[in-house]
Amino acid sequence: AQSVTQLDSQVPVFEEAPVELRCNYSSSVSVYLFWYVQYPNQGLQLLLKYLSGSTLVKGINGFEAEFNKSQTSFHLRKPSVHISDTAEYFCAVTDRDDKIIFGKGTRLHILP
Amino acid sequence: GAGVSQSPSNKVTEKGKDVELRCDPISGHTALYWYRQSLGQGLEFLIYFQGNSAPDKSGLPSDRFSAERTGGSVSTLTIQRTQQEDSAVYLCASSLASSGGFNEQFFGPGTRLTVL
Fold this sequence. Notes:
The structure holds two protein chains of two kinds. Chain A is mainly β. Chain A has strands at residues 3-5, 10-14, 19-21, 24-26, 32-38, 44-50, 56-58, 64-68, 73-78, 87-94, 101-102, 106-111. The radius of gyration of chain A is 13 Å and the shape is globular. By secondary structure, chain B is mainly β. Helices cover 0% and strands 47% of the residues of chain B. In chain B, a hairpin with a 5-residue loop joins strand 6 and strand 7. Chain B is globular and about 40 Å long. The N and C termini of chain B lie far apart (37 Å). The A-B interface holds A 6, 9, 32, 42-46, 49, 51, 90, 92, 94, 96, 98-105 and B 31, 33, 35, 40-45, 48, 50, 56, 91, 93, 95, 98, 100-105, 107-110.
């Protein structure tokens, strides 16, 4: 069975500082990995995805994530955050049966 | 074009009552999913419909929960004899048919259910 662990429920970071949101997964088969973002009072939208190929994936709004198979991780990074990045971020995994399993989410708080 | 829509946006009900939540997927999307988002629990998979196949109900938390999808389009999630722990945001998502690859799920705005 697949599972996703987001180690940090909340991450505070100063504006213009770098940020890393951690995600680890477990699966016995090849996986697809995703990060979704939920801005305040809005629905979820796809931030980026890893399907195959290059392990460094670039998404919208300057975010990127790196797939590390040996560490079963898919951490999300941004070199310089903005106040508009305040949101909840969800890591997710599927083993291609279309049922996506989500982590519990990480709330990113941008401090002025 | 129109995205996934859900109704009602908010629902307040009394413990023990039944509720129905509706999802209208994006036209042409054959896959439809229901999730539950509770504070501190993230997104919990409930049920998945794909075309005419039998739905994957493995995420439904109890037999009080059921879902239908009529005509391969609109879906209704029904919660019978609601309990306070059912209070959550219920999210619906849809995607194109899968052929072993990945099709992005598009999420609706959710229905916030409050059970008093």
